[in-house]
Structures are given as C-alpha cells and as structure tokens.
Amino acid sequence: MLKKILLKALNKYASRWLVLGIDIFLVGFSFVVAYSIRFNVSLNFDFSALIIQIPIVLSIALISFLSVGSYKGIIRHTGTRDAFNVFLGVTIYSFLIGTLVLFNQIFGVFPDFTIPRSIILIHYLVTTFVLIMSRYVFKAFYDVLSTELRTI
Mean pLDDT in the chain? Predict the structure, then answer.
C-alpha cells in the first residue's frame, strides 16, 4: 500500500516550486564559486559587497526563471528542451545583471553593487553548467529511486 502511494506520488508530482527553489539556491552557490574563481580560488574578497549583491542577484534570477518557466519541466522527462530553457533563463538573467551593473556604473545608484564583468561571465558559465547538470542528476536519481521502489 505504502509502496503504491510512493510510486504514484513519485511518478505524478515533482514540485515546480521545489525545482525553482533548488535552482535559486544553485544560482547563489554558483555566484560565490564565481567570486572564488575570479580571486584565484581564495576567499580574499569583499564579503560585505557580496552580502549586498547576493539578494539582488537571486531576485533577478527568480524573475528570469519565472518569465522563462525553466522550473516547469518534469524532472523525470528532462531533455534538451529543459536544457534550452535553463540556458535561455540564465542568458536573460546574465544580460539583466550586466545591464544593471552597467547602469549602476554610469549613474552610481548602488555604491556596493559593482560586480566585475569577469565574475558575470564566470557566473554565467558555472550557472549554466550546474543547472543543466543538476537536471540530469535528479533525473538519474529519480530513475534509480523508482526502480528500487518497484523491486520492493
């Protein structure tokens, strides 16, 4: 009985909001990784600026992913279409971040929101890779879990 309920829930429901939450977490993690890579894999950078930048970066990522709908793909059917949606969402997100940084450099609205262009580029590459790979890892995990539940 419990096995049937678990299999049905696993086959039918993959929370879109959970996928979106994981995506946003991975964007934040990738941003810190991009900072670390930019400063030669050390943590020798201005943490106070990073703390100010992360909420803005995550908000823009959330808006971008909601507009593209990259979180709507069903994990068990992940394929090239989902990868393209992630690519599109990250591209729009990076363009918006770059535009905001450029606007900020010209007008000086947010003094602590000066992200170097190299970090934007590194973050774009790392985020694209991490988000696409996470989809395929979750799909493989789903396949293993559903196979294991059927053999019980």
Answer: 83
The whole-angstrom separation of Cα 34 and Cα 90 is 14
Q: What is the pLDDT of residue 54?
A: 93
The DSSP result for 70-138, as a single string, is: GGGS-GGG--HHHHHHHHHHHHHHHHHHHHHHHHHHHH-SSTT----HHHHHHHHHHHHHHHHHHHHHH
pLDDT digits (tens, 9 = 90+) for 14-56: 567 788 888 999 999 999 999 889 888 777 777 888 888 899 9
| Residue 82 pLDDT > 70 | yes
**C-alpha distances out from residue 148 to 6, 75, 141, Å:** 11, 18, 11
End-to-end CA distance of the chain: 12
Number of domains in the chain: 1
* Residue 82 domain boundaries: 2-151
The rounded distance, in Å, linking the Cα atoms of 68 and 74 is: 15
Give CA separation, 134 vs 1, 3, 9, 67, 91, in Å: 31, 26, 21, 20, 17
> Dihedral sign, CA of 34, 101, 52, 90?
negative
The answer to whether the predicted template modeling score (pTM) of the entire model surpasses 0.70 is: yes
